[in-house]
């Protein structure tokens, strides 16, 4: 069974990104893969700001990433890049912390002008962390995700299809990787 970690980079509890990730997580769970979520906002701020590599919370998060076959890394776009809190956590991953991982970047942005945040902000950092199998990311305009009165996210059909396709590819790649590793 594949193990997949979702790194959620939003500093806010109620974020459109949560709606997107709820959809991704549901698809992963339906596939039978094991999924864990790391909300970087829940990691101790002092540990992140002071780069405490030996923090128990950071060590636990890093262990989840190390054990994963695949990582979904998701963030809203702030100032044409992913969030600072996510960067603070990525700085605490080991130098090759994403080596041999399949990585799917997901970004929610307020304008199409942020579309290239995946290529120019995420991919260089992911590459430095050893990721070589970086799947085509999904950029979601924040207007494509709304919250219903029932508290559930409503995702426009076109972008929902792209999210589902990207997640399916992630699951397929993770399954293949797990099968190869098991011989």
From TrEMBL:
GO molecular function, one term: FMN reductase (NADPH) activity
Keywords carried by this UniProt record: Flavoprotein, FMN, Oxidoreductase
Enzyme Commission (EC) number: 1.5.1.38
Residues annotated as domain NADPH-dependent FMN reductase-like: 3-144
One GO process term, biological-process aspect: alkanesulfonate catabolic process
InterPro entries recorded: Flavoprotein-like_sf, FMN_Rdtase-like_dom, NAD(P)H-dep_FMN_reductase, NADPH-dep_FMN_reduc_SsuE
A Pfam entry, by short name: FMN_red
The keyword Cytoplasm belongs to this UniProt entry's keyword annotation: no
Domain of life: Bacteria
PANTHER family: FMN REDUCTASE (NADPH)
Official protein name in the record: NADPH-dependent FMN reductase
